[in-house]
Design a protein that fits this description.
By secondary structure, the protein is α/β, with parallel strands linked by helices. It is 52% helix and 9% strand. Helix 16 crosses helix 18. It binds adenosine-5'-triphosphate.
């Protein structure tokens, strides 16, 4: 939003907007007892990132910071998520005047469900068991379409009757397509029907951290007590278990224990079980032993419905033609769609203009110009063929000499990295090859890139050329 042409006025900065923070404060003023609000919440100040995905809250001193984190962080994060429709990373920081010279701006990230990178992981193993569910991510707020119909139906079934059919439920798909949302929905639904059900949502990275901690502290009994006694384990992004031997072993044990006591396991991943790299075969076959179901990128009508629904939650009526305009231009995933919507709403609010196609075009102009420069597979094939001095036709041919096969693998790798195309789609564009051939190329080149400096440099050059 910062590079407007000289003829245009840049949209007002959303950064640090008092609006969003003020809305949070106003809401808490209504929800909390007066004294609590006056003592703890009112004195807080905050800085909000451009896209409302991160909020840094400044607290006067360390004691208050700990208290806010313990008492209010979960509430703040679910409130912000409700308001923005996406997980918001919250950081607590000491207000500058209180900070010591050695720790000028100590920050403490707060665990935000669905936000794996927020490292509240430090104390996780010691905390009493919290379910870590994000109350805003329910079946009600998840728009249904053909892209997620089957996954949603299976998830609803599991929530209604855990421990029976579809155990484990393995949901896979690309980024930002609603896998995490669906998992939380299962947990929230179960809790709403059985308040004392033991449910845990956890990102696979956090599970790895817990294993490491248990190992360091020789606290595997505690660890087992924690994980093996659940009624429902929701574990996100299991591809992160790759190459983590000890974690895989512990997860295998937890898996067996949970299934034995008829507890349910729901997992997500960016690929189907057999596509998982560097995970033991015995785990992969367990993952695949219940129901494996994909979530696809949403189709146009579903994207429109998502936009209209999300705007509605904000109390805004989004005209259908605007929703169509945005949905046609933002195609990759729901997270991006939400980002686009937030920009439009902020732009309309700050300029006090009604939402129209013209306004959406203006609010999204950066994003639209990036979309227009989208990299195509054909472009990649041409660029790679030029670079390695082979014919474009060799990208589709069945020829196997290394001087041709290798550039072809590099092009496949770049196609996966730089476009939204699926493995089968890429295979199709490379002369009707099977998706496993593409997967093999992606893994091979990706792996070699880590080891071979020369290859890495060539890839950088190609990426820069393609990104323009
Ligand atoms: N069908 C849908 N209806 C409404 N909101 C959706 C839908 N699908 C996704 N979302 C929203 O899109 C955002 C991204 O979804 P989510 O975090 O669940 O994606 P993900 O598949 O887990 O992605 P990642 O692999 O990057 O973690 C969330 O805010 C989620 O609520």
């Amino acid at each position: 939003m910062t590079q407007g042409s000289p003829h245009r006025t840049d949209p007002p900065e959303v950064q640090g907007t008092p609006d969003f923070w003020q809305t949070c404060i106003d809401q808490l003023a209504q929800e909390l007892p007066e004294q609590q609000f006056q003592t703890w919440i009112k004195p807080l100040t905050a800085q909000v990132s451009d896209d409302l995905s991160k909020v840094t809250i400044f607290v006067a001193n360390r004691f208050k910071l700990d208290w806010i984190r313990a008492q209010y962080s979960a509430r703040l994060s679910s409130l912000m998520e409700r308001l923005t429709g996406q997980p918001v990373a919250i950081e607590l920081a000491l207000a500058a005047r209180e900070a010591t010279p050695r720790a000028p701006m100590a920050t403490a990230a707060v665990n935000v469900p669905g936000q794996p990178s927020a490292p509240s992981q430090d104390n996780a193993a010691n905390e009493p068991l919290k379910n870590r569910l994000n109350a805003g991510l329910t079946f009600d707020t998840l728009v249904e379409g053909s892209a997620n119909r089957m996954a949603r139906a299976a998830a609803m079934h599991v929530a209604g009757m855990p421990g029976h059919l579809y155990n484990p439920l393995f949901i896979y798909g690309g980024v930002g397509l609603g896998k995490t949302h669906l998992m939380h929905a299962v947990g929230n639904q179960l809790i709403s029907e059985r308040a004392n059900a033991k449910v845990l949502y956890i990102h696979a990275e956090q599970f790895v951290t817990d294993v490491v901690k248990a190992y360091q502290r020789k606290a595997f009994d505690e660890f087992k007590e924690r994980y093996h006694s659940l009624d429902l384990l929701l574990i996100d992004d299991v591809q992160f278990f790759a190459n983590k031997e000890r974690t895989q072993e512990e997860f295998f044990n937890a898996f067996e224990a949970l299934l034995a006591r008829k507890s349910h396991i729901v997992m997500t991943s960016d690929t189907y079980p057999k596509g998982l790299a560097d995970i033991h075969e015995r785990l992969v076959s367990r993952f695949d032993s219940g129901l494996t179901v994909a979530i696809e990128p949403p189709e146009l009508e579903m994207r429109v419905a998502i936009l209209i629904n999300k705007a509605h939650v904000e109390g805004i009526v989004m005209p259908e033609e605007v929703a169509f305009f945005v949905a046609k231009n933002v195609r990759s995933n729901v997270r991006e769609l939400e980002g686009a919507l937030r920009k439009i709403l902020a732009y309309s609010r700050f300029n006090q203009k009604e939402i129209s196609i013209a306004l959406a075009r203006e609010a999204l102009r950066d994003l639209l110009s990036i979309q227009n420069r989208q990299i195509s597979v054909e472009n990649i094939q041409k660029t790679v063929a030029d670079y390695y001095k082979i014919k474009i036709a060799d990208m589709y041919s069945k020829k196997r000499p290394a001087s041709i096969a290798r550039p072809r693998q590099i092009a496949m790798y770049l196609a996966k990295e730089l476009t939204q195309k699926s493995l089968p789609e890429i295979g199709e564009l490379f002369g009707g090859r099977d998706h496993t051939t593409v997967l093999h190329a992606v893994r091979k080149i990706g792996g070699e890139r880590q080891q071979l400096t020369e290859l890495n440099q060539q890839l950088h050059v190609l990426e820069q050329t393609l990104k323009g």
